[in-house]
Write a structure and sequence with these properties.
Helix content: 55-70%
Number of domains: 1
Largest sheet: none
Radius of gyration: 16 Å
Distance between the termini: 38 Å
Number of strands: 0
Structural class: mainly alpha
């Protein structure tokens, strides 16, 4: 992890801002704006892009994916601009936690894949692109969104080493563990062969 050089008060403000930004449930916002109903009553009830896709509206799913990724990236870029790399990594963590446990939804949020990728793209675009490519390849091969997410998260630390970004290792390991915790039910379904394919209408 980078050396802590930012004032604690500033770090606290950045952490709060990043959490609140990350906690915006864009999946719910987009589906309501497009008249698709309450996302929490559709499919798995998750607020992420994969569940938005179950509405049958690919544009809504794409918008959710971009916005959920962007909120993590924006938090990182603003923190880096106003403070430094220590603040950027803290913002990445807090934006991710905001998505997983949003205060607006009684701390019942999404699984964080898009936000995870967005923060990595902002922290180091090479690592982020490598993880996005890993997700895409795994999704094409397995046709299972959760498996693609778990694969991309698992290999993220490897990409850090490839691109000599060891100072991000602790953060990435923590984010990866959180991704796996949030996907625990998916892991059980993958093990049992009952995890739905991409585009399936229900869990």
């Amino acid at each position: 992890m980078p050396q802590l050089t930012t004032d604690p008060v500033m770090l606290t403000l950045i952490a709060t801002f990043a959490y609140l930004l990350g906690s915006i449930p864009f999946g719910i916002v987009v589906t309501r704006a497009m008249g698709l109903g309450d996302l929490r009553q559709i499919g798995s009830g998750n607020i992420g892009a994969t569940n938005v896709l179950r509405t049958g509206n690919k544009s809504a799913a794409a918008a959710t994916l971009v916005l959920d990724g962007a909120k993590g990236a924006v938090a990182v870029l603003i923190a880096r601009a106003v403070a430094g790399e220590d603040a950027a990594q803290l913002a990445a963590l807090c934006a991710f936690l905001g998505h997983l446990y949003p205060i607006w939804l009684r701390f019942r949020g999404g699984k964080g894949v898009a936000t995870f990728l967005g923060t990595l793209l902002a922290l180091d675009w090479r690592v982020g692109l490598a993880c996005c490519a890993t997700w895409l390849l795994a999704a094409l091969l397995a046709r299972i969104s959760s498996m693609a997410a778990l694969t991309a998260a698992a290999l993220s630390s490897l990409w850090l080493l490839v691109f000599h970004q060891g100072q991000m290792l602790l953060l990435t390991v923590v984010l990866t563990l959180l991704v796996y915790i949030r996907h625990w039910a998916n892991l059980e379904r993958i093990k049992n062969g009952t995890e739905p394919k991409i585009g399936a209408s229900k869990v």
